[in-house]
Amino acid sequence: MAKAKSVFFCKECGAESPKWLGQCPACKAWDSMVEEPNAGKKSINKAASASPVKRAMPEKLSTVKVQNDLRIVTGVEEFDRVLGGGIVDSSLVLVGGDPGIGKSTLLLQICRILAGLDVDVLYISGEESVGQIKMRADRLGDFKGDIELLSENNLDNIEELVIEKRPKVVVIDSIQTMFREDIAAAPGSVSQVRETTGSLLRLAKGYGITIFIVGHVTKEGVVAGPRVLEHMVDTVLYFEGDNSTDYRVLRAVKNRFGSTNEVGVFEMRSDGLKEVRNPSEYMLQGTPVGEPGSVITATMEGTRPIMLEIQALCCQTSLNIPRRTAVGIDYNRVNLLMAVLEKKLGLKLSFCDAYVNVAGGMKVNEPALDLAIIMALLSSYSNKALGEKTIVFGEVGLTGEIRGVSQAEQRAAEAAQLGYEHIILPKVNLKSVSRSGLKLTGVSHISELMRLF
Ligand code: TYD
Ligand code: MG
What we know:
Layout: E1 6-10, E2 16-17, E3 33-37, H1 41-48, E4 71-72, H2 77-82, E5 87-88, E6 92-97, H3 103-116, E7 121-125, H4 130-139, E8 148-151, H5 155-165, E9 169-173, H6 190-207, E10 210-216, H7 227-230, E11 235-241, E12 247-255, E13 263-269, E14 272-275, H8 279-283, E15 294-301, E16 304-316, E17 324-327, H9 331-345, E18 352-358, H10 370-382, E19 390-392, E20 395-396, E21 402-403, H11 408-417, E22 422-426, E23 439-443
Parallel strand pairs: 6-10, 6-11, 7-8, 7-9, 9-10, 17-18, 19-22, 22-23
Antiparallel strand pairs: 1-2, 1-3, 4-5, 11-12, 12-13, 13-14, 15-16, 16-18, 20-21
């Protein structure tokens, strides 16, 4: 039978189909099929197997030796922690994020530290020339050791070079610019991304090389998202943040060698990324005192509490349909909480425009912030400020009840450390924070809130 000229791939999961389908039969994503030239069965099979180059023999579980020093600790605590305690030997790590968020900068900084630790590093960029990388490196400060740079898109050449040079750490920036000659599709297409990652996987596992892959997350459609990649690599890190603010969060969404709970916090400066060791202090810079509409809360990022300021502004509307804006928090959650306020406390919010904002540019999505959002709205609506040195946390249900939150002790401890004196929290959490030494106000329904101003 004649070979079909093209096949269809799902952008989300990489599933293959001979014809276009509205819904992917494997992952059920809608409108995710893209057409690509048929690469041929042979090369697909070859790339799909991730086996090391030499034939391996099975080993008994009881005799397998584990070396504990297989991690390289870079000393950048925010980075090491997200990886589960340092860079694991022979691992394949995907660093994803929006274009321009700072992925190349982060990895170049890590390379710089590795070079200082006498680790052989090869930085391969398919996007920038060697000169451009040098310019960036100069902005980041002095390099103690040296790293090798290469500007190349052809993965066959890269593979040869890596096998010849055997560096300890390789950075591929970015996977969307890499191609293999035997695949007919364009760089960045699902089949190229899948096949090139397959090759890199074999390099990493077969030759004991740690490989960092940069993957751009693009807006719908154009390029294959790193979703396809996520299944193949050991660790997936996402570098998030707002291009308009300096605050960046490195988050592990998959980690075969550690917890996915951890986040690393960085600040983008003119001389590269700087660690933010105490995110709470950073987030609370410039918080107004005694202003209606401003409420401090504590959220959990993994195992770490971070204090934030929630701001709300309610003002009379001149529109038929009042305007609602939520920045940094879920818009629907804000609408829901406003509906609860309207129904349970009789606030006339349908005559008000309302804007809710997480100050500092952080994005949070935790029910424990509900009470702080409600307090901020109430505070702005009634034009009364909450007492100084007060923090608020708790989940709010649809009937106006205030429900307990997890890790209340850690939140209280962080508040105490930063000099806060009073916590408004769910009644059920009172017992767990009783030893914090702070003044505690337990609440169980939103009808109890107005008298706290
Ligand atoms: P970059 O690492 O190139 O992003 P990515 O690789 O994720 O596409 O970062 C680009 C942005 O970072 C750019 O807008 C400029 C900014 N930047 C700084 O603010 N300071 C610096 O020292 C560097 C190197 C970049
Ligand atoms: Mg880049």
